[in-house]
Structure formats: C-alpha cells, structure tokens
Amino acid sequence: MERHFIKELDALKMTLLNMAALTRRALEKATHAYLNRDEKEAQTVIDGDKEINDLELQVDNISLKLLALEQPMARDLRFIIGTTKISKELERIADQAVNIAQRSLFLCQHPPLHHIPSMERLMTIADNMLDAAISSFINEDFQQAIKVRQMDDMADKYTLEVLQTLVEYMVKSTPVAEKRLLNTNRSIQTIIISRCLERIGDLATNIGEHVAFIVKAINIKHQKIDFE
Fold first, then answer.
1. Helix, strand or coil for residue 4?
2. Which of 39, 42, 81, 99 is deepest in the core (most CB within 10 A)?
3. Whole-number Å distance between alpha carbons of 97 and 23
4. HEC readout, 178-213
5. 3-class SS of residue 227
6. What is the pLDDT of residue 207?
7. What would the mean pLDDT of 194-198 be, rounded to a whole number?
C-alpha cells in the first residue's frame, strides 16, 4: 500500500509540473504576442487554455482519491492540500495569459502605441516571479518561496508606471474625435494587460505561500514578517 501511495503522490506532482510548464509557456506566448503583434501566437494561447483546465481537474481527482483512500498525515497531507491550491493558482494565471492574448488580438488590428519601457519591465518581473514560484515547488525551497512575495512590490511599481504613462498619453491625445477614441481604446486595452501581469504576480506570490506551507507547515499569508 505504501508503495502505491508514493506512486500516486509522484503522479500528483508530475501532473502539477506539467500544468506549471504549460502555464509558463502560455504566459511567454501571450507576452510575446503583445510585444511582437503576433495574432497567430495570441490565438494559440486562447486555444491551449482547455488543456490547462483539464490538468487542474486531474490534480483535483488525484488529490481527492488520495485523501479519501489513503488518509495521509503531516507532510503528505500538506503536500496534497498545497498541490491542489497551487493548481488553482496556475489555472488563474493561465486565464490571465488568455486575457493578455485577447487584448493583444485587438491591439494587433490597430496601429501600435509608442514604446512603454515599464511594460517590458513588468513582463520581466511577472515572468521571474512565476519562475521562482514554480522552482520553489520543484526544489521544496522555503527561502525562494518567500522571496517571491518580496518581488511583488516591483510588479506594483511598474504597473503604476504603465498606468501613469498611458493616462498622460490619453490626456495629450489628438483633438480629432475618432482618433482620440481609438487612442483611448488602445490605451485601455494596454492598461488591462498591465493589470493582468500584476495579477499574475499576485498569484505567483500565492504559490510561494502554498509552498512555504508544504515545506515548513507555516502559514505566511497576510504576514509581514521576513523569514530568514
């Protein structure tokens, strides 16, 4: 029975890692589609969302089976519960990637906005946060898990900079009504993308918190303590 239990735990972990890899790829493709105005790549993100959703259901099914039949305790119980929570965060991140892709499809159909350096920095920090969160799970690294949260302030900073840049752009926009409306619509879609990236950072932070719970049995959610 113990060997079977370990095998099922391994299957649960591998399913989550597969989901994490697909989610990571969806974010990469979505940001690439925005930066390169690539409609085809944006559409692949939208089309690929079902596979990620299906993997979330697989994680739920394996977890429920383990909880019902094996009655796990201590670290194993935390791992199963934590993995289920992480899968939900990954599914939400994938949804945000789809949202970015959908907004990018709209932007691809209109002339590009001027370059926004803060947007690229925001994409980089969101990527790094997700990478760090996934890596902390793979390596069961408590210190890396809590460092994800420390990166979130930078994501908030860049999001605000994008908002400020685009609000200024809309205020100074051309007086011609039709062009002003188009500029406003493009700016709003871009602001929404920045908010999606900020949300991805928040969800990556949640993953780090779940990993901390799995590894150390410590709930760091809502705490402002910096663990060394």
1. helix
2. 42
3. 8
4. HHHHHHHHHHHHHHHHHHHHHHHHHHHHHHHHHHHH
5. coil
6. 98
7. 98
